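Objective 1b. Sequence-to-structure analysis of Phenylalanine--tRNA ligase alpha subunit.
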Amino acid sequence: MRDTALARIEEAGDAAALEALRVEFLGKQGSISALMKTLGKMSPEERQSEAPKIQALRTDVADALAARKDAIDAAALEARLATETLDLTLPAPHAPRGSVHPVSQVMDELAEIFADLGFSVATGPEIEDDWHNFTALNMAETHPARAMHDTFYFPDVDSEGRRMLLRTHTSPVQIRSMVAQGAPIRIIAPGRVYRSDSDATHTPMFHQVEGLVIDKGIHLGHLKWTLETFLKAFFERDDIVLRLRPSYFPFTEPSVEVDVGWQDVGGRRVLGGDGDAPDHGWMELLGSGMVNARVIGFAGLDPKEWQGFAFGVGVDRLAMLKYGMDDLRAFFDGDQRWLDHYGFSP
Ligand code: PHE
């Protein structure tokens, strides 16, 4: 039995024939299984002499089946390798890849530009409390400026009884930075902000970058130089001209609105040049000012020792100006064709 079984296994031509043999010999109804069952009826002496022989037969057949299976698999692989070819000159299938969104790209660029000026990046929570978003920024409960922010409030108060909201600007990061790290400070804080407002130029979520410098002897000149240096680098033009106008924010004193000069180039407004020149104009770009002494005090620093400036600028707006995009809402539609159109494809 052993020799015929081994010979037949050796002759099996493919995996199916081999499987049939496995069933024939070792399956539940198989011939070797039947031999095993005869052991039960034998006398103890007979069983002692027969059992090792049957076991050995079973092992030999199982080993032969495994060896033959390896040989058949190897032969099948050989055959496939011999017939299959790969044409490396065929065009690759089109696989669309992602790209960096203009907003993320602008935030990355800002982080790089400001890193060169010694600023690090700070962050704060988007779910903020009333104190950081308003009170510590010199907007007490009854301050009229609160009404201008169209705030999304949460219905509940937190465990310490504070009213929670979606931050309406990145300015609370000013407070968090001063409280956490003291002075001096040089940070920018990019991130999402929320206001209940929606039209072609407003989306309920948008992006700002806050800037904050706290040190000794800081004055408006430092603010103007910093903004000029940043905007020249960002718009990659040396002829960026700024105009500072008196304004009002509760958390800066004095407050300045910053306009940037533009010029008409073939019907398009291109940033650069003195806004007062013919065919030129001014565009409002950002809010800023010297950090209000009260705010420095609220954040736990001595305003007699420390001064500083702060600014806040819309990131989406910066991206629109830099890349000539005209509809803010398209930023948040996720339409690949829009990204392609403005060159944001990999
Ligand atoms: N937080 C202000 C806004 O959202 C901008 C600003 C920031 C103004 C810092 C002054 C200083 O409109």
